[in-house]
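Before surveying the methods themselves, it helps to consider a single example record, giving the amino acid sequence and backbone structure tokens:
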Amino acid sequence: MSWSVSATGNSIDVAMKIEEQFSSYTPCPDPEESIKQSARDLIGQALRGNIPDREVTVSACGSQATYYGTEGAPDRVANTLNISIS
């Protein structure tokens, strides 16, 4: 699966927009869901630490790919995560 969020505006508005976007997603398989929730928390913390009327741009995305093992071997997953707040 993959997901992405983005918004530009003052810190308060962006925090609300990003939260709405995260809330609209169907849960992902773990560990991707745990990673997505951690990203959500980190972005929220960063935005709460900003001056409320400061203009910010947030973009974040992540994905998880499953690599299937041979018979008897466990499946493996690879995750990517990018977060930018400027």
